[in-house]
């Protein structure tokens, strides 16, 4: 009697298929894991806004790429070609940074996250500094000499910035780009406060020049003035947030997080609208004027005067 009972109990308790099915159910649910990945660290709306904004901008650049390449090849502006290439590189790097937000709250990924953030923010800072240098030396100045001078100055400044941040990261062991309540280092917020103070002073000085006797030395472009005003206000807000967070105010940490989202989501489109979009539009107007002159010389509009 005991033998049949044992024979029945064995297959009921030890079924290899049941273990495999449990593993399959645990690992095959991609929907909840995707939502957990998007919602990890800062939350779904934070990560979703960054990913959506950066992805839409890269798709827009891809959609306009053929037309942009044609206009750049006809325009033959070395500065615009180099700047457009840098914009593409930094946009892709920023897209990767937005997709990998979960690394920030993963202990094993803290070092890769800091390195990725260092190069992403440095690339955006390079565009920011070089844009000021490009426009301050003239309206879309071209030539290898102007390109070399601008890129050398911007590269030196950004290189010094990278060196300083690398010393904080690898020398002092301060995770500059891990923004959560567990990493409230006073030295970190002091560095960010100085960083924002310098940028605020630069943009504030340019705004002051617009309302002074040195206004003629600046490009007479309303878009450049609006760009400077927007960046000045954003850096003032970020400076205020860094000062509050360094003193232990939680509200300042929330403001700082909002400025980071706005910077990574909207700065590159703002830069494109301010600098490159006007250049492409001017090329269209130039071609239209050329076509009009050719048609006028050919006598297409003589009937209008009769």
From TrEMBL:
- Transmembrane residues, as ranges? 44-63, 83-103, 115-138, 150-174, 194-212, 224-247, 253-277
GO molecular function, a single term = G protein-coupled receptor activity
Q: Where in the cell is it found?
A: Membrane
Q: What is its main location?
A: membrane
Alphabetical list of Pfam families matching this protein: Tmemb_40 (PF10160)
Please give the organism.
Answer: Rubus argutus
One Gene Ontology term, aspect cellular component: plasma membrane
Family stated for the protein in its record: Belongs to the UPF0359 family.
Keyword set, alphabetical order: Membrane, Transmembrane, Transmembrane helix
Which InterPro entries does this UniProt record tie to the protein? Answer: TPRA1/CAND2/CAND8 (IPR018781)
The answer to whether keyword Iron-sulfur applies is no
- Name under which the protein is recorded: Transmembrane protein adipocyte-associated 1
